[in-house]
Specification:
Helix content: 40-55%
Protein name: 1-aminocyclopropane-1-carboxylate synthase
Catalytic activity: S-adenosyl-L-methionine = 1-aminocyclopropane-1-carboxylate + S-methyl-5'-thioadenosine + H(+)
Distance between the termini: 43 Å
GO molecular function, one term: transaminase activity
InterPro entries: Aminotransferase_I/II_large, Ethylene_sulfur-biosynth, NHTrfase_class1_PyrdxlP-BS, PyrdxlP-dep_Trfase, PyrdxlP-dep_Trfase_major, PyrdxlP-dep_Trfase_small
Structural class: alpha/beta
Family: Belongs to the class-I pyridoxal-phosphate-dependent aminotransferase family.
Largest sheet: 7 strands, mixed
Length: 383
């Protein structure tokens, strides 16, 4: 954790509680910090698994902090205050704020100003701050990652440090989702003690801990792995977003994560979530690409989709982009059905497009991302 954060902060091992992945860590914190019916504020769009991880067994609520594309879905003090006031009006007690940094699904990082504003907000309201930092080592471009732990070291925050809790895991940064290794790092003694007692319900096996400890003790390997991972993610993101841009698909300017947040609003029949779901079913069933609709992330605007690009080889990505190109060309010409000549021309345009794409794509070797044990879910194997 210190290495990923540029050795700018130090972590006390006594404040670490092991957990069966970030899923268990989130649930444990929810049990520790809130009672059934109470709520955490969560900026939208947010990871759909939060609804399961934080709510199902704890009985707590997630109250949305609505962020919009007009300012690239940035979190502002105004949006935080607005969400807090609406929760109060609904007679919902707010116990904390959850931040996902870097963001899933946006693929963006929070800057120091935003983190300080969030810290100021929770101090003023005397509520907790949970920072989910499981994508911290996936940052592949500037601006760099800033952990809430850095903000916690500032003198202005020292009196309220016990309100800060960090969730981390190895699933994304080291590609170990199946090992289920997560942690809670809390600056609050009572939370550490309570979480440690509750950890019996989601232990990380001794064998797994020994294996991971042995691997992480190899500083040279870890440093090379993280460096190579960042390079591959940067290249894959560049190639994929450039491929989308070739057919006019815009995406949010991200610099972290294993995915991008693409804008398909112009392909909607109308600006509604019903139209978004219709488009999603079309992409799944006809185009046979596995993407996630913005509605599943509680996005406030229809037409946004998350697409993962890191867990496939180069050839699979090429096929995925080819399908996207073909679909967009056909979709944007639906008002006037293509003639046979136009269809052949579109096929030729796609072919030539990928001939140019191959000029700047990664080397032909089949590089699989180290970030997932799953097999190429973007391109579905359905026929």
């Amino acid at each position: 954790m210190e290495k990923v954060r540029g050795n700018k902060v130090k972590f006390n091992p006594d404040r670490i509680v092991m957990s069966g992945g970030a899923t268990g860590a989130h649930e444990t914190l929810a049990f520790c910090l809130a009672d059934p019916g109470e709520a955490f504020l969560v900026p939208t769009p947010y990871y759909p698994g939060y609804d399961r991880d934080l709510r199902w067994r704890t009985g707590i609520q997630l109250f949305p902090v609505v962020c919009e594309s007009s300012n690239e879905f940035k979190i502002t003090r105004e949006t935080l205050e607005d969400a807090y006031e609406k929760a109060q009006e609904a007679n919902i007690k707010v116990k904390g704020l959850i931040l996902n940094n870097p963001s899933n699904p946006l693929g963006t990082v929070l800057d120091k100003t935003t983190l300080r504003d969030a810290m100021s907000f929770i101090c003023e309201k005397n509520i907790h701050l949970i920072c989910d930092e499981i994508y911290s080592a996936t940052v592949f471009d500037e601006p760099g990652f800033i952990s809430i732990a850095e903000i916690a070291e500032e003198s202005s925050v020292s009196k309220h440090r016990d309100l800060i809790h960090i969730v981390y895991s190895l699933s994304k940064d080291l590609g170990f989702p199946g090992f289920r290794v997560g942690i809670i790092y809390s600056y609050n003694d009572a939370v550490v003690n309570c979480a440690r007692k509750m950890s019996s319900f989601g232990l990380v096996s001794t064998q797994t801990q020994h294996l991971i400890a042995s691997m992480l003790s190899d500083d040279i390997f870890v440093e090379k792995f993280l460096d190579e991972s960042a390079k591959r993610l940067a290249e894959r993101h560049r190639v994929f977003t450039r491929g989308l841009a070739k057919v006019g698909i815009k995406s949010l300017g991200g610099n972290a994560g294993l995915f991008c947040w693409m804008d398909l609003k112009r392909l909607l029949k109308e600006p509604t979530f019903e139209a978004e779901m219709e488009l999603w079913h079309l992409i799944i069933d006809e185009v046979k690409l596995n993407v996630s609709p913005g509605a599943s992330f509680r996005c406030s605007e229809p037409g946004w989709f998350r697409v993962c690009f890191a867990n496939m080889d180069d050839e699979t990505m090429r096929i995925a982009l080819q399908r996207i190109h073909k679909f967009v060309i056909q979709k944007t010409g639906l008002d006037q059905p293509m003639t046979r000549k136009q269809y052949k021309r579109s096929e030729l345009e796609i072919s030539l497009s990928f001939r140019r794409l191959d000029e700047f794509i990664m080397t032909p070797r089949m590089l699989s991302s180290p970030h997932s044990h799953m097999t190429s879910p973007l391109v579905r194997a359905r026929t």
